[in-house]
Amino acid sequence: MNNTGFYPIGNAGEPWGESERTQWRASQSVQRRYDEDVVPRIEALSGRFETVTYGNLDYAGEEYALYALRAAPYDPELPNVLVTGGVHGYETSGVMGALEFLETKASDYAGKVNLLVAPCVSPWAYERVNRWNYDAIDVNRSFFEGSSALECTALMALVSSHSDPFVLHIDLHETTDSDESEFRPALAARDGEPYEPGIIPDGFYLVDDSENPQPEFHKTIIEAVAKVTHIAPADEEGQIIGSAVLSPGVIEYPYAKYSMCGSITKARFTTTTEVYPDSPNATASQCNAAQVTAICAALDYAVN
Protein backbone atom coordinates (compact mmCIF):
# COMPACT_ATOMS: atom_id res chain seq x y z
CA MET A 1 0.00 0.00 0.00
CA ASN A 2 1.41 3.38 -0.99
CA ASN A 3 1.68 6.28 1.39
CA THR A 4 -0.44 9.18 0.18
CA GLY A 5 2.22 11.67 1.23
CA PHE A 6 0.07 13.14 3.97
CA TYR A 7 -1.55 10.11 5.62
CA PRO A 8 -0.20 6.58 6.11
CA ILE A 9 -3.34 4.71 5.02
CA GLY A 10 -4.63 4.46 1.46
CA ASN A 11 -3.42 5.25 -2.05
CA ALA A 12 -3.22 8.80 -3.30
CA GLY A 13 -6.38 9.83 -5.13
CA GLU A 14 -8.29 6.65 -4.25
CA PRO A 15 -11.16 6.60 -1.72
CA TRP A 16 -10.86 4.02 1.02
CA GLY A 17 -12.43 0.60 0.74
CA GLU A 18 -13.07 -1.89 3.49
CA SER A 19 -9.41 -2.92 3.74
CA GLU A 20 -8.35 0.67 4.42
CA ARG A 21 -11.11 1.15 6.98
CA THR A 22 -10.00 -2.06 8.68
CA GLN A 23 -6.41 -0.82 8.74
CA TRP A 24 -7.51 2.53 10.12
CA ARG A 25 -9.64 0.84 12.78
CA ALA A 26 -6.70 -1.33 13.86
CA SER A 27 -4.64 1.83 14.38
CA GLN A 28 -7.12 3.22 16.92
CA SER A 29 -6.36 2.30 20.53
CA VAL A 30 -8.37 2.92 23.68
CA GLN A 31 -6.91 5.91 25.54
CA ARG A 32 -9.65 6.52 28.11
CA ARG A 33 -12.79 4.77 29.31
CA TYR A 34 -16.39 5.80 28.80
CA ASP A 35 -17.49 3.49 31.62
CA GLU A 36 -15.03 5.15 34.00
CA ASP A 37 -15.17 8.82 32.98
CA VAL A 38 -18.74 9.35 31.82
CA VAL A 39 -21.14 6.62 32.96
CA PRO A 40 -20.51 7.03 36.73
CA ARG A 41 -21.29 10.75 36.50
CA ILE A 42 -24.50 9.98 34.62
CA GLU A 43 -25.45 7.41 37.26
CA ALA A 44 -24.74 9.92 40.02
CA LEU A 45 -27.27 12.28 38.42
CA SER A 46 -30.03 9.67 38.28
CA GLY A 47 -31.61 10.95 41.48
CA ARG A 48 -32.09 14.39 39.93
CA PHE A 49 -32.92 13.46 36.34
CA GLU A 50 -34.59 10.65 34.47
CA THR A 51 -31.91 8.53 32.80
CA VAL A 52 -32.91 7.45 29.30
CA THR A 53 -31.08 4.67 27.47
CA TYR A 54 -31.84 5.72 23.92
CA GLY A 55 -29.61 3.26 22.09
CA ASN A 56 -26.99 0.54 22.30
CA LEU A 57 -23.91 0.22 20.13
CA ASP A 58 -22.15 -3.07 19.47
CA TYR A 59 -18.90 -2.63 17.60
CA ALA A 60 -17.15 -5.99 17.17
CA GLY A 61 -18.27 -7.10 20.61
CA GLU A 62 -17.58 -3.77 22.32
CA GLU A 63 -20.88 -2.53 23.66
CA TYR A 64 -21.85 0.99 24.64
CA ALA A 65 -25.16 2.18 26.04
CA LEU A 66 -26.20 5.65 24.84
CA TYR A 67 -27.58 7.77 27.65
CA ALA A 68 -29.56 10.97 27.89
CA LEU A 69 -30.71 12.76 31.01
CA ARG A 70 -34.15 14.33 31.10
CA ALA A 71 -35.68 16.71 33.60
CA ALA A 72 -38.83 15.28 35.16
CA PRO A 73 -41.73 15.61 35.31
CA TYR A 74 -42.38 16.71 31.74
CA ASP A 75 -44.48 19.87 31.48
CA PRO A 76 -46.10 20.39 28.04
CA GLU A 77 -46.43 24.10 28.80
CA LEU A 78 -42.65 24.59 28.99
CA PRO A 79 -40.21 24.94 26.07
CA ASN A 80 -38.14 21.89 25.10
CA VAL A 81 -34.34 22.24 25.09
CA LEU A 82 -31.69 19.81 23.81
CA VAL A 83 -28.01 19.87 24.76
CA THR A 84 -25.64 17.47 23.00
CA GLY A 85 -21.97 16.75 23.67
CA GLY A 86 -19.40 14.33 22.33
CA VAL A 87 -20.83 14.09 18.84
CA HIS A 88 -17.16 14.13 17.95
CA GLY A 89 -15.84 11.88 20.68
CA TYR A 90 -12.39 13.43 20.87
CA GLU A 91 -13.76 16.86 21.78
CA THR A 92 -13.45 16.48 25.53
CA SER A 93 -15.01 19.67 26.84
CA GLY A 94 -18.20 18.92 24.92
CA VAL A 95 -18.71 15.83 27.07
CA MET A 96 -17.35 17.29 30.30
CA GLY A 97 -19.11 20.60 29.80
CA ALA A 98 -22.48 18.89 29.36
CA LEU A 99 -21.93 16.87 32.54
CA GLU A 100 -20.69 19.90 34.47
CA PHE A 101 -23.77 21.84 33.41
CA LEU A 102 -26.03 19.06 34.68
CA GLU A 103 -24.14 18.89 37.97
CA THR A 104 -23.89 22.62 38.67
CA LYS A 105 -26.38 24.72 36.70
CA ALA A 106 -29.27 22.65 35.37
CA SER A 107 -31.25 23.00 38.60
CA ASP A 108 -31.46 26.76 37.93
CA TYR A 109 -33.77 25.98 35.00
CA ALA A 110 -36.15 23.64 36.80
CA GLY A 111 -39.70 24.72 36.07
CA LYS A 112 -38.50 26.90 33.17
CA VAL A 113 -37.69 24.34 30.46
CA ASN A 114 -38.01 20.66 29.64
CA LEU A 115 -34.33 19.82 29.53
CA LEU A 116 -32.86 16.88 27.57
CA VAL A 117 -29.09 16.33 27.60
CA ALA A 118 -27.12 13.69 25.66
CA PRO A 119 -23.62 14.19 27.09
CA CYS A 120 -21.63 11.69 24.99
CA VAL A 121 -23.16 10.86 21.62
CA SER A 122 -20.10 8.93 20.35
CA PRO A 123 -18.61 6.79 23.13
CA TRP A 124 -16.46 4.58 20.84
CA ALA A 125 -14.77 7.71 19.50
CA TYR A 126 -14.57 9.21 23.00
CA GLU A 127 -12.48 6.27 24.15
CA ARG A 128 -10.13 6.50 21.16
CA VAL A 129 -9.96 10.30 21.10
CA ASN A 130 -11.14 10.28 17.52
CA ARG A 131 -13.47 12.29 15.33
CA TRP A 132 -15.03 9.32 13.54
CA ASN A 133 -17.03 6.35 14.71
CA TYR A 134 -16.09 2.67 14.31
CA ASP A 135 -16.97 2.76 10.59
CA ALA A 136 -14.78 5.82 9.87
CA ILE A 137 -17.90 7.99 9.60
CA ASP A 138 -17.94 11.61 10.72
CA VAL A 139 -21.00 11.56 12.97
CA ASN A 140 -21.50 15.33 12.67
CA ARG A 141 -21.99 14.99 8.92
CA SER A 142 -24.39 12.04 9.14
CA PHE A 143 -27.67 13.21 10.65
CA PHE A 144 -29.97 12.33 7.78
CA GLU A 145 -32.67 9.79 7.08
CA GLY A 146 -31.14 6.44 6.26
CA SER A 147 -27.81 7.31 7.87
CA SER A 148 -25.53 4.34 8.53
CA ALA A 149 -24.09 6.05 11.63
CA LEU A 150 -25.83 4.31 14.52
CA GLU A 151 -25.04 7.18 16.86
CA CYS A 152 -27.05 9.47 14.59
CA THR A 153 -30.07 7.25 14.03
CA ALA A 154 -30.38 6.63 17.79
CA LEU A 155 -30.26 10.34 18.64
CA MET A 156 -32.69 11.26 15.85
CA ALA A 157 -35.12 8.63 17.13
CA LEU A 158 -34.87 10.11 20.62
CA VAL A 159 -35.66 13.58 19.30
CA SER A 160 -38.51 12.25 17.16
CA SER A 161 -40.06 10.63 20.23
CA HIS A 162 -40.88 14.11 21.53
CA SER A 163 -44.25 15.18 20.20
CA ASP A 164 -43.69 18.84 21.08
CA PRO A 165 -41.13 20.95 19.18
CA PHE A 166 -37.79 22.06 20.57
CA VAL A 167 -37.08 25.76 21.06
CA LEU A 168 -33.31 25.44 21.58
CA HIS A 169 -30.53 23.00 20.64
CA ILE A 170 -26.93 23.71 21.60
CA ASP A 171 -24.29 21.25 20.35
CA LEU A 172 -20.94 21.35 22.17
CA HIS A 173 -17.73 20.99 20.15
CA GLU A 174 -14.02 21.79 20.06
CA THR A 175 -11.52 22.77 17.37
CA THR A 176 -8.15 21.23 18.19
CA ASP A 177 -4.62 21.15 16.78
CA SER A 178 -5.28 17.51 15.91
CA ASP A 179 -7.85 18.69 13.37
CA GLU A 180 -4.88 19.68 11.20
CA SER A 181 -2.35 17.08 12.34
CA GLU A 182 -4.70 14.08 12.07
CA PHE A 183 -8.36 14.48 11.22
CA ARG A 184 -8.36 16.63 8.10
CA PRO A 185 -5.50 14.62 6.55
CA ALA A 186 -7.41 11.42 7.40
CA LEU A 187 -10.56 12.84 5.78
CA ALA A 188 -8.70 13.73 2.58
CA ALA A 189 -7.12 10.26 2.46
CA ARG A 190 -10.43 8.50 3.15
CA ASP A 191 -12.16 10.38 0.34
CA GLY A 192 -9.23 10.19 -2.10
CA GLU A 193 -8.85 13.96 -2.23
CA PRO A 194 -5.89 16.33 -1.89
CA TYR A 195 -5.11 17.59 1.59
CA GLU A 196 -5.14 21.37 1.88
CA PRO A 197 -3.78 22.68 5.19
CA GLY A 198 -5.87 25.13 7.18
CA ILE A 199 -5.44 27.41 10.18
CA ILE A 200 -6.64 26.52 13.68
CA PRO A 201 -8.23 29.54 15.38
CA ASP A 202 -7.01 30.41 18.86
CA GLY A 203 -10.12 30.85 20.97
CA PHE A 204 -13.81 30.17 21.35
CA TYR A 205 -16.25 30.69 18.48
CA LEU A 206 -19.78 29.73 17.44
CA VAL A 207 -21.27 28.29 14.26
CA ASP A 208 -24.72 29.67 13.40
CA ASP A 209 -27.07 28.00 10.93
CA SER A 210 -27.00 29.93 7.65
CA GLU A 211 -30.49 28.58 6.89
CA ASN A 212 -31.86 29.94 10.19
CA PRO A 213 -29.53 32.72 11.34
CA GLN A 214 -29.99 34.17 14.83
CA PRO A 215 -27.38 36.94 15.14
CA GLU A 216 -28.54 38.47 18.44
CA PHE A 217 -28.73 35.04 20.06
CA HIS A 218 -25.14 34.33 19.06
CA LYS A 219 -23.91 37.78 20.08
CA THR A 220 -25.36 37.21 23.55
CA ILE A 221 -23.55 33.88 23.95
CA ILE A 222 -20.23 35.33 22.77
CA GLU A 223 -20.49 38.21 25.24
CA ALA A 224 -21.09 35.78 28.10
CA VAL A 225 -18.28 33.40 27.13
CA ALA A 226 -15.81 36.27 26.67
CA LYS A 227 -15.89 36.68 30.46
CA VAL A 228 -14.62 33.10 30.83
CA THR A 229 -12.16 32.60 27.94
CA HIS A 230 -10.90 34.49 24.91
CA ILE A 231 -12.84 34.68 21.64
CA ALA A 232 -11.15 33.55 18.42
CA PRO A 233 -10.12 36.42 16.15
CA ALA A 234 -10.60 36.41 12.40
CA ASP A 235 -7.57 35.50 10.29
CA GLU A 236 -6.01 37.79 7.68
CA GLU A 237 -8.81 36.90 5.26
CA GLY A 238 -11.51 37.85 7.78
CA GLN A 239 -12.36 34.20 8.29
CA ILE A 240 -12.41 31.42 10.86
CA ILE A 241 -11.75 27.90 9.46
CA GLY A 242 -12.44 29.18 5.96
CA SER A 243 -15.79 30.84 6.74
CA ALA A 244 -16.47 34.56 6.88
CA VAL A 245 -16.72 36.04 10.36
CA LEU A 246 -20.15 37.65 10.61
CA SER A 247 -19.60 39.21 14.02
CA PRO A 248 -16.91 38.62 16.66
CA GLY A 249 -16.54 34.88 17.12
CA VAL A 250 -19.46 33.88 14.86
CA ILE A 251 -19.45 32.07 11.52
CA GLU A 252 -22.18 30.19 9.60
CA TYR A 253 -22.64 26.72 8.13
CA PRO A 254 -25.76 25.30 6.42
CA TYR A 255 -26.65 22.74 9.10
CA ALA A 256 -29.12 20.63 7.14
CA LYS A 257 -27.01 20.60 3.95
CA TYR A 258 -24.04 19.28 5.95
CA SER A 259 -26.25 16.89 7.98
CA MET A 260 -24.98 18.39 11.23
CA CYS A 261 -26.33 17.49 14.64
CA GLY A 262 -27.68 21.01 15.06
CA SER A 263 -30.24 20.36 12.31
CA ILE A 264 -32.12 17.51 13.98
CA THR A 265 -34.57 19.46 16.16
CA LYS A 266 -35.39 22.26 13.69
CA ALA A 267 -35.41 24.50 16.75
CA ARG A 268 -35.72 28.25 16.42
CA PHE A 269 -32.44 28.73 18.30
CA THR A 270 -29.53 26.47 17.35
CA THR A 271 -25.80 26.86 17.79
CA THR A 272 -22.61 24.84 17.67
CA THR A 273 -19.92 25.82 20.15
CA GLU A 274 -16.21 25.51 19.34
CA VAL A 275 -13.63 25.66 22.12
CA TYR A 276 -9.86 25.62 21.54
CA PRO A 277 -8.33 23.41 24.27
CA ASP A 278 -4.78 23.55 22.85
CA SER A 279 -4.43 27.28 23.40
CA PRO A 280 -1.60 28.36 25.72
CA ASN A 281 -4.11 30.84 27.10
CA ALA A 282 -6.76 28.32 28.18
CA THR A 283 -6.98 25.44 30.62
CA ALA A 284 -9.20 22.36 30.55
CA SER A 285 -11.32 23.83 33.34
CA GLN A 286 -11.73 27.06 31.37
CA CYS A 287 -12.85 25.10 28.32
CA ASN A 288 -15.44 23.23 30.38
CA ALA A 289 -16.56 26.52 31.95
CA ALA A 290 -16.90 28.09 28.50
CA GLN A 291 -19.25 25.28 27.45
CA VAL A 292 -21.33 25.64 30.63
CA THR A 293 -21.47 29.42 30.20
CA ALA A 294 -22.57 29.04 26.58
CA ILE A 295 -25.38 26.67 27.57
CA CYS A 296 -26.62 29.02 30.29
CA ALA A 297 -26.46 32.09 28.04
CA ALA A 298 -28.34 30.22 25.30
CA LEU A 299 -30.98 29.08 27.76
CA ASP A 300 -31.41 32.52 29.26
CA TYR A 301 -31.85 34.09 25.84
CA ALA A 302 -34.22 31.45 24.48
CA VAL A 303 -36.36 31.30 27.61
CA ASN A 304 -36.63 35.06 28.01
Quickly count the helices. 9
How much beta, percentage-wise? 15-25%
Question: What would the principal axes of the Cα set say about the shape?
Answer: globular
Terminal CA distance: 58 Å
Explain what the structure shows.
This protein has a single domain (18-303), classed as Zn peptidases (Aminopeptidase, 3-Layer(aba) Sandwich), CATH 3.40.630. The protein is an alpha/beta fold. The longest helix is centred in the C-terminal third of the chain and has 20 residues, at 284-303. 31% of the residues lie in helices and 19% in strands. The chain starts with 17 loop residues before the first helix and ends with a helix. The protein has an 8-stranded mixed β-sheet, sandwiched between helices. The protein has 9 helices and 10 strands. Helix 4 (92-104) crosses helix 9 and helix 8 (215-225) runs antiparallel to helix 9 (284-303). The mean pLDDT is 96.
Features:
alpha/beta; hydrolase activity, acting on ester bonds; two-stranded antiparallel ribbon; 31% helix; DUF2817 domain-containing protein; single chain; zinc ion binding
